[in-house]
Amino acid sequence: MNKRLAVPHWAWIIAAVTFVAMLGAAGFRSVPSVMMDPLHNEFGWSHATIGAAMSVNMTLFGLTSPFAAALMDKLGIRPVMSGALLLISGGTALSVFMTHSWQLVLLWGVCVGMGTGSMSMALVATVANRWFVGRRGLITGILTAANATGQLIFLPVVAAITTSHGWRVASLVVAAASLAVVPLVLLFMRNHPHDRGIRAFGATDEDPGPPPSTRTGSSARAAVDALLVGLRTPVFWLLAGSFAICGATTNGLIGTHFIPAAHDHGMPVTTAASMLAVVGVFDVAGTILSGWFTDRVDPRMLLVVYYLGRGASLLVLPSLLTDSAKPSMWVFILFYGLDWVATVPPTVALCRIFFGDRSPIVFGWVFASHQIGAAIAAAGAGYLRDANGNYDMAFWIASALCVFAAGMCVSIRIPARSAPEPVPVG
Fold first, then answer.
1. pTM to 2 decimals?
2. What Cα–Cα distance (Å) separates residue 371 from each residue in 36, 77, 219, 323, 349?
3. Which residue among 87, 234, 276, 288 is least enclosed by CB atoms within 10 Å?
């Protein structure tokens, strides 16, 4: 008897396209740490100057997120993703012509910052909330892994191309990777399950998932309204504060400065880049596993464990840095990979618990705080490096902040009901 070939739910196709698109867009985020020394050597720009440009990038990466989420709610996911990929590709490609530091700020900071911000964690929350009822935590973990892992997996490729052919060729390769994803988005991405005449994956009569948006007003106003909702809720401040520390200790500090810090101790750039790539490999497992746990374990307790473990690893990092990859450093890389963005699935879950259907935009603002923290760390660590000649103080400060973040997460009080109504505006 013939058996019909099982056809996957369209939500998994949406998830696959989103994964690939975020992976391609994240390629640019591997560029700054690899190119910091080449730019310094060619143009004489200080670590603080280049770190400041990265701060602009990270700030806009975060601040664009809630507005992009509101725009997706009004226009749909596909046009926002396509436009973001084109902006990333264009900004990166044009950077090969820059000769002054303000051009670095404009292209790497503003253009690419806004482009990547439109395809950040708010996109993850939107896709997971709109297309999935079952497996939301898991799919959040998978898509988060794409965003964080893409930038780390690209590192050895970008480092090798930069070493062999220069940073301009490496920039063009990253631009081409982002551009190549656009046709995939245009062909397969859909804005809502109703566009296919279906319901979200795992939807039931009790929980059918969010209906198609009927928003007609300003997307900027929707984003601001969501911020006002958050500002009136204590849990928002706790989530935003702890997530700012998450950004400071990942993208801002390790993502931007690990390679220069290792190079200060005599480690070759390609070796340090390869170690960060391994962080990306383990990040896939760690973030997906975190998503699986988020469907089953109190998300607050997960965050406490993640932040305390990260703080301990940062405390000992200065003593681990040498001119080669010692076994102790590989232990750090393994742990940091598993913990890199494991914080995202439980943070998204807490936003959904407290803010309901408004949660993707509210989480966009929480993620904005993540990037503000990253921006402060990117600039601050560069300043400490210039002032002290090493990154030790930056690592120790980050360690203390992680303990503070764990304390904020412990302070969150989940209401007795499992799915509270969102806080009203006004």
1. 0.72
2. 19, 22, 21, 31, 19
3. 234
